[in-house]
Write a structure and sequence with these properties.
The protein has no helices and eight strands. By secondary structure, it is an all-beta fold. The chain is globular and about 30 Å long. The strands form two sheets. A four-stranded mixed sheet has the order 4-5-1-8, with no helix packed on it. A four-stranded antiparallel sheet has the order 3-2-6-7, with no helix packed on it.
Length: 109
């Protein structure tokens, strides 16, 4: 598990390239995970990660990790090196969303 100290991203600062067989994923978390890198993987593909950042929008802010440009498929979201948190289906041309569990996976989650 890696952690970083990223500042907030402002409205319009994240660009998602959607279409064909390419989608995106947003993993929503609490602010307590700010800076933590969350890994995802599709089937037997290599894992990829994204850091949880504060996302400022017109109506306030929330914390999430964003995964742009994902090939369509079923993705596993990982708690750590060996523990899956759940799965999510990413479809081409769409944004999938996953809610990080607020309990049941240790004090940090």
């Amino acid at each position: 598990m890696h952690e970083h100290a990223y500042g907030p991203s402002e409205t319009g600062s994240v660009v998602l390239d959607l279409g064909g067989e390419t989608g995106a994923l947003i993993v929503h978390t609490g602010r307590n995970l700010h800076g933590r890198e969350i890994e995802i993987s599709r089937e037997e593909d290599r894992r990829t990660h994204s850091a949880v950042r504060e996302r400022r929008v017109r109506d306030g802010s929330f914390h999430s990790a964003v995964y742009p440009d994902l090939p369509a498929g079923i993705y596993t979201v990982w708690w750590d090196e060996s523990t899956p948190v759940g799965t999510v289906s990413v479809h081409g041309g769409a944004i999938a969303e996953f809610m990080w569990p607020s309990s049941g996976f240790g004090a940090a989650g």
